[in-house]
Amino acid sequence: MRYLPNSPRDRAEMLRALGYSSIEELFSQIPEQIRFQGRLNLPGPLSEQEILEFFREAAGQSARKYASLLGAGAYSHYRPAAVDALLSRGEFFTAYTPYQAELAQGTLQAMFEFQTQGTLQAMFEFQTLIAQLTGMEVANASLYDGSTATNEAVLMALRLTRRNRVVVAKTLHPEYREVMATYLRHQGTEIVDVPYSPSGQLDVAALESAVNKETAAVVVQSPNFLGAIERFGEVAELVHKNGALLVVTVNEPLSLAIVNPPADADIVCGEAQSFGVPVAFGGPFVGFLATREKFVRQMPGRLVGQTTDTEGRRGFVLTLATREQHIRREKATSNICTNQSLCALAATIYLCLLGKQGLKALAEHNMAKAHYAARQLADVPGTSIPFASPYFNEFVVKTPGNADGLLRELQAEKILGGVSLERFYPELKEHLLVCVTETVSKATLDRMVEVHRNFSVRNEAGAGARSASSRPVGQEKA
Amino acid sequence: MRYLPNSPRDRAEMLRALGYSSIEELFSQIPEQIRFQGRLNLPGPLSEQEILEFFREAAGQSARKYASLLGAGAYSHYRPAAVDALLSRGEFFTAYTPYQAELAQGTLQAMFEFQTQGTLQAMFEFQTLIAQLTGMEVANASLYDGSTATNEAVLMALRLTRRNRVVVAKTLHPEYREVMATYLRHQGTEIVDVPYSPSGQLDVAALESAVNKETAAVVVQSPNFLGAIERFGEVAELVHKNGALLVVTVNEPLSLAIVNPPADADIVCGEAQSFGVPVAFGGPFVGFLATREKFVRQMPGRLVGQTTDTEGRRGFVLTLATREQHIRREKATSNICTNQSLCALAATIYLCLLGKQGLKALAEHNMAKAHYAARQLADVPGTSIPFASPYFNEFVVKTPGNADGLLRELQAEKILGGVSLERFYPELKEHLLVCVTETVSKATLDRMVEVHRNFSVRNEAGAGARSASSRPVGQEKA
Amino acid sequence: MKDHPRHARPHITRDEGLIFERSSPGKCGVDLGAPDVPPASASELLGEEYYRKEIPGFPEVSELEVIRHFTRLSTWNYGVDTGLYPLGSCTMKYNPRINEVVARLEGLATDHPYAPEEVTQGCLKVLHDTARCLAEITGMDAVSLQPAAGAQGELSGILIIQACLADRGNPRKYILVPDSAHGTNPASVATSGYQMRPLKSDAHGCIDPNELDRAMTDEVAGLMLTNPNTLGIFEVRIREICELVHRKGGLVYMDGANMNALVGIARPADFGADVMHLNLHKTFTTPHGGGGPGSGPVAVKKFLEPYLPSPMVVQAADGTYGLDYNRPKSIGRVRAFYGNFGMVVRALAYIAANGGEGLLETTQDAVLNANYVMRRLQDLYELPYNEPCMHECVLSDHRQAARGVHTVDIAKRLIDYGFHPYTTAFPLIVQGAMMIEPTESASKEDLDEFIDAMRAVAEEVEEDPEFVLKAPHTTRVSRLDEAGAARKPILRWKP
Amino acid sequence: MKDHPRHARPHITRDEGLIFERSSPGKCGVDLGAPDVPPASASELLGEEYYRKEIPGFPEVSELEVIRHFTRLSTWNYGVDTGLYPLGSCTMKYNPRINEVVARLEGLATDHPYAPEEVTQGCLKVLHDTARCLAEITGMDAVSLQPAAGAQGELSGILIIQACLADRGNPRKYILVPDSAHGTNPASVATSGYQMRPLKSDAHGCIDPNELDRAMTDEVAGLMLTNPNTLGIFEVRIREICELVHRKGGLVYMDGANMNALVGIARPADFGADVMHLNLHKTFTTPHGGGGPGSGPVAVKKFLEPYLPSPMVVQAADGTYGLDYNRPKSIGRVRAFYGNFGMVVRALAYIAANGGEGLLETTQDAVLNANYVMRRLQDLYELPYNEPCMHECVLSDHRQAARGVHTVDIAKRLIDYGFHPYTTAFPLIVQGAMMIEPTESASKEDLDEFIDAMRAVAEEVEEDPEFVLKAPHTTRVSRLDEAGAARKPILRWKP
Ligand SMILES: Cc1ncc(COP(=O)(O)O)c(C=O)c1O
Ligand SMILES: Cc1ncc(COP(=O)(O)O)c(C=O)c1O
Prior knowledge:
The complex is a heterotetramer, with two copies of chain A and two copies of chain C.
Chain A: H1 8-18, H2 48-60, E1 67-68, H3 81-87, H4 90-93, E2 101-104, E3 107-110, H5 117-134, E4 138-139, H6 146-161, E5 165-169, H7 174-184, E6 190-194, H8 204-210, E7 215-221, H9 233-241, E8 245-250, E9 267-271, E10 287-291, E11 304-308, E12 314-318, H10 325-328, H11 341-378, E13 394-398, H12 403-412, E14 415-416, E15 419-420, E16 431-435, H13 442-462, H14 466-469
Parallel strand pairs in A: 1-14, 5-6, 5-7, 7-8, 8-9
Antiparallel strand pairs in A: 2-3, 4-10, 9-10, 11-12, 13-16, 15-16
Helix pairs in contact in A: 3-11, 5-11, 6-7, 11-13
Chain C: E1 8-14, H1 19-22, H2 42-50, H3 63-74, H4 97-103, H5 121-138, E2 142-144, H6 150-167, E3 174-178, H7 184-192, E4 195-199, H8 209-215, E5 220-226, H9 238-247, E6 251-256, H10 268-271, E7 275-278, E8 298-300, E9 312-315, E10 321-324, H11 341-377, E11 393-396, H12 398-401, H13 407-416, E12 423-424, E13 433-436, H14 444-463, H15 465-469, H16 482-487
Helix pairs in contact in C: 4-11, 5-11, 6-7, 11-14
The structure holds pyridoxal-5'-phosphate (2 copies).
């Protein structure tokens, strides 16, 4: 096998040194009856060329020939070539976590910082970039994804407040809400939903009645799952008045280049996939979590800290490891061990490349495209943009007919036209969530609008009770 | 511009330090009338995404959807992923030649070996691998390509023998012969062609009458341009009897894994593109030149030598630089400076990966496929394999009609069916040069044979004087 | 002190500050060009309330500087590509290059998780095929690829046990975890809502069936074990152990992080595990990436399939693939979308490259290597549990500690010899543990060099313990002030 | 001696022997599987006479070992990615990553040179577009992309001159080459069959029109000059010089290796050059690759077009591209196929990324950087020709040589400071030359660090010349025995 560096001669010599006469003897301690006797029924062995052919075949049965207007937590952005060029350096991608530490002689001693200074410094930069973006004081060195980051934020809030009730915007990504349900079910935590208002933003009145003195956290996503950018002033006041923590999830963090970060939040967490990480059918992505300095000892996940060596030179170590499972075991702030380091590195490289100007320009670019698309759609008779609140690169469009049918028509035009919202919000039957990034050309957008127009014309003609169904959805009971 | 690391502020500070008030002043020594006043009419500036789109568009207008049976000096072989992964390391591909040396205080001092030990050791390995493959004693660290390597071998032979007449097999790659003509024209060197025999190999009788005591070198390619593997015993004797040098060109060096190298040759040179270098529309490739130790001081190009440092540790340096242009200027053994280092590195990596067993297995694989294809074609009535000599992965097929017409029919089936030989050998009108490597599937070969069969059937029907044209071509006067 | 042969030397490397320190206003590593739609003013569209003018302190550098910055940082790292990485429990094996290529193929790297199933058949097939392979390897009946890493696999598995027992009427309260377990095990149990009850190992470092019998009350939902355990020892009484747990109404969770010892040799389902996770980033060559991403599929016996996370990838009668969300008994989602798909692609490529025979040969080499190291070092380093080992062995610093030199110090000295250290301080049941996992990616030549280095350090400890205590002597940074870092944490750059 | 701040430190790096020393029988880095055709016995097909049983000594290693081997070797190299590379005359500028991506696109990386033109329109278009861009940049009328590197471009150009003059009746015998010229110039002249006649530079390091006037007899075919010359000085009387050569029936060849000083600023065709080459691996960012591949297109004025190498890429009236072999006056081929196509792709990507404005800005930065370095060092290092420089400057070791320290020694000491040395020993007209070309890829920050290092070394030379003479002090190998290597050359490994 081409990956194995021992030759038959090496093996024979080693067996001889061990006093074994066959490789089988190495396994003699395993009771016979539980030894696997058969041959594993697996594909292969394949040559490298055959592997490539197999996956090319699979890659061929993909949506790569389609233009995509899908977002909803996974955003297609152009990835500069430098990102993969750097990630592909063996010293980065074949290194282990610099995570081991020992409590020796009463103090914590890290072990691997000598051979992972590169990763450590890069993660320190990641923490800084995330803190800058979110306007928070500190950030950790990544979590699995936006969904678990949000969940970890809630768990952190439960620990910080010692309360057991969480108020969650219904416009938090539905899958994030599901994850939270999975994790909190067994903690006896009460989860309370807050609906959206007709504008698409959080229904502040509903929030007011939902939040109380038992509430540990209020979780709001912005831009939310309907694309609406939230306003936080009043929300934060309400939350803090009740002694709860405000957790804000951002899963299109490119928005933070032109949208004010939620300054009054206590934890800002989310998904950084937009920053140089491929969409890759949903993973691996990269969760982040930023907060205030005073909460740092309740943070989940790894933290890189700056320090100095015996000669006074700057160096980086994993710090505050006493929060973590390898030191604290069942009392750790989280069970996370392996995180998403390489994706965090991708995000770091990406953010450095784009930088202050590039990220802003790209955000404006996205915004211009999305707003162009929305304006064109709004001009289609029978089609509307139901939510009036500000949005970034993603918005909801209401169609005068079956959304799935429309999507199929777009698909025939090689356009994946959006996410049908009915699946997540039964009340949003004829609504599509449309995302427009810099990767979609104007020509595609125009073609998309044409399909909408034709669909509208056809459906308008046949529509009976149209006026009823076009009433703003936010007003329906959520 | 994204590649430039100076900020406007940096520039202003530097100008100030220099006492200039504008960047224009830097160029004030250039007379006004010869300053370029216009704006360069060039594409761009393009964003990275636009560049990718531009070249994707170009790549789309390619033969990538075609199976290829084209060889003739450029061979499609599978390139293991490790090759590019390693070539892409910045320390390799963004380094300069370790070539500078200075004649200081009477001795030669190299300068850059401290920061190019990696490249130097790899080139030493390349030299070793090429020497092993060719069965020669020493090899250099690459030349431009097979054509110039062959030419350099001839120039070397002219210097070594101080003669000025070269005998060249007509089955040396026609473009290599053209290159030689370009270089030798002005040296007053006489070039004499030797035809091929009916078997496809060199016509030894013709060689005998061509080679004489004024002959510096006899140049033979093997496998030759018609795919025939040459036999060298008698040839070498003839050459050496006349005091000439035998230069053997190999441009499908994979053959050397199962074909004896020309042990009696004085110089074995050629093209190593087969070893992990992409076909890339004909370049960059990688020429090599191997010879006997006693000729080393007349070799062209760079040579890496092993030595020790002051502490006795092994190290590598460029050596015998007094042959080279940067030391010897107009008296150098060649004008080459920049060579094909990175391609030589690719070949080194490739040969290490395949190694003794893999290279042989691959060669056998190629041979099996080519012979399968040839056998199937030989079975097609009216189609024949005109040359009887042994071949490796490339052979000539004779068709019963216009070869270009047949190629067009194959092309319609998405097969590039071979190189029409008439272009290079007017006497080989209905002949195709067909190359079959491991990259072509049996299914493709079977499809190819089908097209040949249909073509034959159609042409056989209409053919009049068929028997005449099917006489072995080698017998025609070459 | 004797000068032992070393397989490494110092060489000049570039310094590199923080990227923020390279920043200068007006530089940018990308040029975007103008959008092809009419420009829109973000500040107008958003209005003052929302519009952000700038991100203070954000870096401004050119493309070249980014390349140099991260290239330089990378040179301070040690990876599997650099050399032997005998980090116990981490299975630092070779990451094949073709895996990186196929995971980046357009289509696989670009498909959107919400794209219609009919246009993402390739991705779905990769998920489905991989799940089938992992089921075959573990002997289990169903596999979910959703968990993002081992720890999440553990949590999912424990939640599955909980759901199953709840269905049976009583989820119970405790999970037993041997004292040798990896830190994520107790942490995952705690996250699941269960309480952790430690189980003391016996004199062989294994689970003591009597101890287990005592501990396995009717409040105990199950046992979470690792096999081979973290000492690298196969639990020879595993069958008995599982039967005992089952008899007492519990379920057995197996931490499959050590599957590199078993693939092709023994299947957890066959010896009694009910549910387990795998670490694709250990056994199945997906790169560790300096700390992730991983992938921690969870595999279960048939009766637990209904509880697996939702959705599941299924194949219809017509051969097409789809996602099944209709899983009323499922523990729910543990993360968004379908798992770390990119890692799954790599794992499948690895499995297919090997086939069954290749994987078996791999396991054999991994076990052979570990035994070779153990036997060639046990005269100089204490071997607390003298048993044949599987894929890794655990020695201890017992003798060296007598001279004031601890596992950590020896580990650091190894760096001067050109090696990445072994795992220290784990498992906790061995005082001064030195946990060595060579994996199959070490050649005999590598091992001999490593053994020589370990032996040389043992000699150095005898001759000059002070010197070892100050190691490493050849790295860019010397020992860093950990305590200071924790006391007043500096967790970000500030201008 | 004062401890000057350095921007580099030693760090442990792995040793690595020759790959042959890792070899062990039976290992292999690939698995090929069986062919899908009936197997054939090569030994039978070939017979004893031809069949080779094995390649003695050929390596046998696994994929992992190949990765480790070359990864380790790479860490002993210094590249543009590592840091400032102020190697005069080499234009070591940033190699954009997108260039590497597009050059590897299937189609561009895989098309066969003999594939029919109708299926290779993309490749042909790339060649055609690039030729057009280079013509625009140089002001020339036609460009051949065939030459493999600068030296081959030179040869092609000289052969073109020869062909043209021969056509005019007399090819003449000599080519004038200034004494400051790069070694390839005289070597290429010699290869062409002409004889080289050196031309002495004047007090400003430039061509002396009077000297030229004397030398330019009717046996002289032309002048081969470099502008800016190898001192980095623009030949301010270039127009006059070219006119003189033309008047005397000669032609002017310009070595365009220094075009990084001129792009967007001045065009050689406009100031009188008739034929020139470009180094795509200098001015146009194709990577040097540790010594190549390069690409040395040759550009000519209209009247020389018929002599360009064959074939030429042409565009038909219908917009399609093709190869024109019907070139009766051509000098012929200088290599197989159409040039180093892969490098052409990269150069075009670079040009398109910049556009005209970007290229101009690039030139400005390159020239600004060189002047900045020159002016900030000339108080400590001799500046033999005190003229404003273009893209590079040449200082000398004159003052340091008085203390026994030469340019080579200073260069080696720079390594300890974390820099790649400048070019030494060239141009030959400056004794103890220190030729510094920062390129536009150096930031002011880089330059300031470099200048500090140069100044520190100058101080060290005063304080402790011996220490400098022994430099470098921080590299894996110390000074290597060059003389021994040349005396008894070991050019290959032997078992
Ligand atoms: C034995 C064992 N179990 C579980 C884990 C946790 O896996 P992960 O890091 O993927 O969460 C590890 C990883 O270090 C381990 O070694
Ligand atoms: C001034 C000058 N001319 C010509 C050349 C030769 O170019 P190449 O190395 O591409 O053959 C060089 C390269 O070093 C050079 O610096």
